[in-house]
Amino acid sequence: MNILLIGSGGREHALAWALSASPLLDTLYCAPGNGGISEIAECMALDTNDHEAVVAFCKDKNIAFTVIGPEAPLVAGLVDDLAAAGLKAFGPSKAAARLEGSKAFTKDLCAKHDIPTAAYGHFTDAEAAKSYIREQGVPIVIKADGLAAGKGVTVAETISQAFEAVDDCFDGRFGEAGAEIVIEECLIGEEASFFALVDGKTAIPLVTAQDHKRAFDGDKGPNTGGMGAYSPAQVMTEALCARTMDEIILPTMEGLAEACTPFKGVLFAGLMVTKDGPKLIEYNIRFGDPECQTLMMLLKSDLLPALLATADGELDQVDIRWRGDMAVTVVMAARGYPGAYEKGSEIAGLEEAASDPDVEIFHAGTELRDGKIIAVGGRVLNVTARGGTVREARDKAYAAVASIDWPEGFCRSDIGWRALQREDAAA
Ligand code: AMP
Ligand code: GLY
Question: Could you give all domains of the chain from N- to C-terminal order, each with its CATH number?
Answer without folding.
Answer: 2-93 (3.40.50.20), 119-185 (3.30.1490.20), 190-317 (3.30.470.20), 326-426 (3.90.600.10)
